Amino acid sequence: MNSVIQKAKRIIIKVGSSLVTNDGKGLDAGAIEKWATQIAELRAMGKEVVLVSSGAVAEGMQRLGFDKRPTSIDELQACAAVGQMGLAQIYETSFRAHNIRTAQVLLTHADLADRERYLNARSTLFTLLRFGVVAIINENDTVVTDEIKFGDNDTLGALVANLIEGDALIILTDQKGLYTADPRKDPNAEFVHEAKAGDPALEVMAGDAGTSIGRGGMITKILAAKRAATSGAHTVIAWGREDAVLTRLASGEAIGTQLNAQTAQLTARKQWMADHLKTAGKVVLDAGAVQKLRNEGKSLLPIGVTAVSGEFGRGDVITCTDGDGHAIARGISNYTSSEARRIMRHPSAEIQSILGFVEESELIHRDNMVLL
Ligand SMILES: Nc1ncnc2c1ncn2[C@@H]1O[C@H](COP(=O)(O)OP(=O)(O)O)[C@@H](O)[C@H]1O
Ligand SMILES: N[C@@H](CCC(=O)OP(=O)(O)O)C(=O)O
């Protein structure tokens, strides 16, 4: 097997907290310099690179003298604010040695959920690539609360891969890749060299973070690969301290776990809808409507809706679930939540008499919907 990284032109590289901060002991300048040197080589090979780096909280904890992760949000946010300075500084210095400029890009979930801000982030990242700048991306931890967090940078890495149509996502971590069980807990765990991104069997193997430094663990990496695959990006999970890991991957050597994207690619607008981690509202569908959406390629009509929750406006992205609460689809609503509550369970021909006007006969048109 040749690594997919060999052919990939635009690559998103994600490095985890434990790697970046040497297991919480402080920024690992040596490791960061090595990645910067390798990224410079990748660029000389004609590849474009965007870096998603964790480590702000872990580094801030170190700088402020915390020996265990604070539990209060404001202290965590203060740590992130302090630590992010260290990250920006060390990447700037390490890349400058290779005559490469860096840019700090801090994103929140709200930035990517809003269509205009999403398109702004996208064009800024494209412009940075055009200028030959390596963007160093992290979540803007200082301003986000738990409810609106990406939560972990594996997810953020996948969303960035989708946002800028990356060919591959490389997740560097403290393990050689995915094992059939957490190798910290199960000595018999076997290494997985290659699999299909999105294969549900992988989710069973992957556990949470083995340390208190990392956030997501392996499960968020597996789900990130599934998410990145929707825009056609392949994922490689590899050990960040493996000698010349990035350049060897780029030369085609198979290192780590390769998760191949095989799902059909979504269009750009559908990609944006699919990448909403949270939505303002939700509608519950009856079995007939689930069937129409899933198997018949139909739009969602008000008659198939049995409940509406949350507050949303016309044009907002909402989630459609089945009666058991499983998400089926996401799409742009033609009606507000209060209008939807009034027209649900009714045939579209009655919308005029109920509301006094008709926007559309569908609650969500098929063209504005993505199945999950
Ligand atoms: N099936 C698995 N294979 C490999 N590692 C696993 C698995 N399940 C859980 N893990 C744990 O996930 C950890 C990596 O996740 P995390 O600590 O969040 O890293 P990072 O900071 O790089 O994001 C590993 O150290 C390991 O203990
Ligand atoms: N934005 C956080 C990232 C937290 C996170 O996802 O960590 P990790 O699981 O190590 O990638 C920080 O910089 O500390």
UniProtKB/TrEMBL annotation:
Substrate binds at residues 54, 141, 153. Belongs to the glutamate 5-kinase family. It holds the Pfam family PUA. GO terms for molecular function: ATP binding; glutamate 5-kinase activity; RNA binding. One of its GO terms (biological process) is L-proline biosynthetic process. GO terms for cellular component: cytosol. Catalyzes the transfer of a phosphate group to glutamate to form L-glutamate 5-phosphate. SMART domains: PUA. Residues 281-364 form the PUA domain. It catalyses: L-glutamate + ATP = L-glutamyl 5-phosphate + ADP. Pathway: Amino-acid biosynthesis; L-proline biosynthesis; L-glutamate 5-semialdehyde from L-glutamate: step 1/2. The keyword Cell inner membrane does not apply. It is found in: Cytoplasm. Keywords: Amino-acid biosynthesis, ATP-binding, Cytoplasm, Kinase, Nucleotide-binding, Proline biosynthesis, Transferase. Its main location: cytoplasm. Its EC number is 2.7.2.11. ATP binds at residues 14, 173-174. This is Glutamate 5-kinase.
